[in-house]
Design a protein that fits this description.
The chain has 285 residues and is an alpha/beta fold. 44% of the residues lie in helices and 14% in strands. β1, α4 and β2 form a beta-alpha-beta unit. The radius of gyration is 22 Å and the shape is globular. The structure holds pyridoxal-5'-phosphate. Pyridoxal 5'-phosphate (PLP)-binding protein, which may be involved in intracellular homeostatic regulation of pyridoxal 5'-phosphate (PLP), the active form of vitamin B6.
């Protein structure tokens, strides 16, 4: 009887130990030898929250790339690696591995990185854009896109700066613009209401050769998967208004926490930061 009781206690202690070990390994992001993506190792990396060194950048990039490939199932989906608040060296590490599209939120930070890094980087501006900074931004020769256009006045300023910079002529590509859509009704994040997207998109499409309407972008409230469907629907409305096929317009949606869902909802471009470069201090978008 006594022996039996001791055996039970032993078994319980063993079980408790196993659970604790499992929990510790899980929170450290241990994936054992499971194939990438099955257990979404990307999430485990982000929950560990360690600042990424260059080795970690390589690891994070590789995992995100394989998760994208798995979710895309052969479809072409662009990864924009979001490097805000991260050192130029971290961008260089990813660039060395063949990642060329990078996203930045702040004009000053982008100016500094653009001058420190090689010109084959393709920069995407994904932050709030103040009109007095448009010219500086557009003059970065390897800026390929501004993804946060939410007014026709801003589009006009960008178009004239792009024209002054010679974009869209003499072999220089036009600058890609995305209409930012507020799909979660969160005014703080910017963007036009879905119903207003066709009008702004038509305005951009008529702005001349220096810019090109590349598609729609949304941030969406965390956990609001309906945001992806709403951006998808907004694209159909825009395409119908312009008389072009839906597929001619891109959908930039999905971040570290939800890029696989976004891809399953038709994203053509995802913006992933912390899973590649490590967590950031809290900030305003
Ligand atoms: C910071 C940022 C991202 C990347 O966020 P993560 O959660 O780190 O992947 C994507 N899009 C926008 C607009 C951002 O500001």
């Amino acid at each position: 009887m006594k022996l039996h009781w001791r055996g039970q206690r032993h078994a319980r202690a063993k079980a408790a130990f196993r659970w604790t070990l499992a929990l510790v390994l899980f929170s450290l992001g241990y994936n054992g030898d499971r194939p990438a993506c099955l257990a979404c190792p990307c999430r485990a990396v982000s929950s560990a929250g360690v600042p990424a060194g260059n080795q970690a950048v390589a690891e994070g990039l590789r995992k995100v790339q394989s998760c994208i490939a798995e979710a895309a199932g052969g479809r072409d989906v662009r990864l924009v690696a979001v490097s805000k608040f991260k050192a130029a060296e971290a961008v260089q590490a990813a660039l060395d591995l063949g990642q060329v599209d990078f996203g930045e939120n702040y004009v000053q930070e982008l100016l500094e990185k653009a001058s420190a890094l090689p010109s084959n980087v393709r920069w995407h501006f994904i932050g709030r854009l103040q009109s007095n900074k448009v010219k500086k931004l557009v003059n970065i020769p390897n800026l390929v896109a501004i993804e946060t256009v939410d007014s026709s006045a801003l589009a006009d300023r960008i178009a004239s700066a792009a024209q002054a910079a010679g974009r869209g002529e003499g072999g220089i590509d036009p600058l890609d613009l995305f209409v930012q859509v507020d799909t979660s009704n969160e005014e703080t994040k910017g963007g036009v209401q879905p119903n207003d997207a066709p009008e702004l998109a038509s305005h951009i499409a008529a702005c001349g050769r220096s810019i090109r309407l590349a598609g729609l972008m949304t941030i969406g409230a965390p956990g609001d998967m309906g945001a992806f469907d709403r951006l998808h629907a907004a694209r159909s409305a825009v395409a119908a208004a312009l008389g072009v096929p839906d597929a001619e317009l891109g959908l930039s949606m999905g971040m570290s926490g939800d890029f696989q869902e976004a891809i399953s909802k038709g994203a053509t471009s995802v913006r992933v930061g912390s899973l590649i470069f490590g967590s950031r201090p809290p900030q305003k978008l």
